[in-house]
Design brief:
single chain, alpha+beta, 6-stranded mixed β-sheet, 4-stranded antiparallel β-sheet, globular
């Protein structure tokens, strides 16, 4: 049976620190226009364009924006070294997070208070790639291995978990 790597490449309203220069969060739906206008998105290993794992145009990567974030389902090629590396490192959870490459097209800034870095809120962006990475900038991203049949159940459980966590943090 073909292996499926799935999870959230982006978690909306999750805040992170970008290189100690500013904070950043992605607004819900920030990639919706991009997914319509530029539907060919790559899946990579650690932002390396020499290591493609899938792409939407080939049907080996699926992307969906929902209440939690940008969900992905990736079918890596088990006959390639990079496909096997992706499957193996995600299976062992050496790689359990994601990142993404994008170009911001609309943003707002909050200058922050005393001793607080400015906050960039990405309202709209063009998405070029999602990537499996051992060191994600956004810790809430996820990647796990599942059979295609169990991916829908895993996605539902992840949405429920993220909604509970956001409610506890006062986000919802």
């Amino acid at each position: 049976m073909a292996e499926l790597i799935s999870g959230y490449a982006v978690v909306f309203n999750s805040e992170t620190n970008i290189a100690g220069a500013f904070r950043e969060k992605i607004s819900p739906g920030a990639f919706d226009k991009s997914l319509r206008d530029y539907p060919d998105v790559l899946a990579l290993f650690n932002h390396n364009y020499d290591r493609p794992l899938g792409r939407t145009a080939a049907g080996t990567l699926e992307l969906r924006s929902d209440r939690v974030g940008l969900w992905f389902g990736l079918k890596p090629d088990e006959t390639t070294p990079d496909g096997l590396t992706a499957i193996g490192t995600v299976r062992r959870q050496d790689v359990k997070g994601c990142s993404f490459g994008f170009t911001v097209t609309r943003e707002t800034w909050d200058e922050g208070g005393d001793n607080e870095l400015p906050l960039r809120i990405v309202e709209e962006a063009v998405l070029w790639e999602v990537t499996l990475t051992p060191l994600p900038a956004y810790a809430e991203t996820s990647a796990s291995l599942s059979s295609p049949d169990s991916a829908a159940n895993a996605r539902r459980r992840t949405i429920e978990k993220m909604e509970r966590e956001q409610k506890l943090r006062g986000i919802r």
